[in-house]
Amino acid sequence: MAPAHLRLRIGLAASGWVALGAAALPGGSPLRWIPVLAFVALAPGLALLHPQPTGLRPGARLEALALAAPVSLSLATLAATSLFLLEGFSTTAFLVSLAVFVTVVAALPGVPLPAATRGAVERESARARIRAKRKPGDGR
Fold first, then answer.
1. Phi, psi angle pair for 87, to nearest 5°
2. Among 21, 25, 86, 139, which is 20 to 30 Å from 122 by CA?
3. d(CA 126, CA 77)
4. Confidence of residue 125 (pLDDT cuts 50, 70, 90)
């Protein structure tokens, strides 16, 4: 595994625990809400989508970033709703459940993305090969 992917996975796994630690800071401090907001809005989706074993092509990186926020917010909504239904919602329980999820998922390979397997980069290279085969003045 490449060191960059390993750093990404460790960073994602640690981000939840950092957000949990930041939640213990005083009320309205930006040092409290910025890490928590960033973690809840991005980390679960990035943990699911980004850690691909072979890396991501440029089109797939954009796709992973575009999908990370909606997937993260959907998972956060499921976690919060489950905790409310179990009558056990608290900020700590919510962040711990998401942090455990992200820690486990960061150790697994990412969900395959369409652009990762047949992205725009491959289509462009195929077009370039077709253009290279054509002769000038071919009439096409």
1. 55, 40
2. 139
3. 41
4. low
pLDDT, position 41: 95
Confidence of residue 25 (pLDDT cuts 50, 70, 90): confident
SS (H, E, C) the chain: CCHHHHHHHHHHHHHHHHHHHHCCCCCCCHHHHHHHHHHHHHHHHHHHHCCCCCCCCHHHHHHHHHHHHHHHHHHHHHHHHHHHHCCCCCHHHHHHHHHHHHHHHHCCCCCCCHHHHHCHHHHHHHHHHHHHHCCCCCCC
**Residue type at 44 in one-letter notation:** P
In the numeric block, the tokens 């077009």 are attached to 127
User: How many other C-beta atoms are found inside a 10 Å radius of the C-beta of residue 126?
Assistant: 10
Threshold 0.70, pTM exceeds: yes
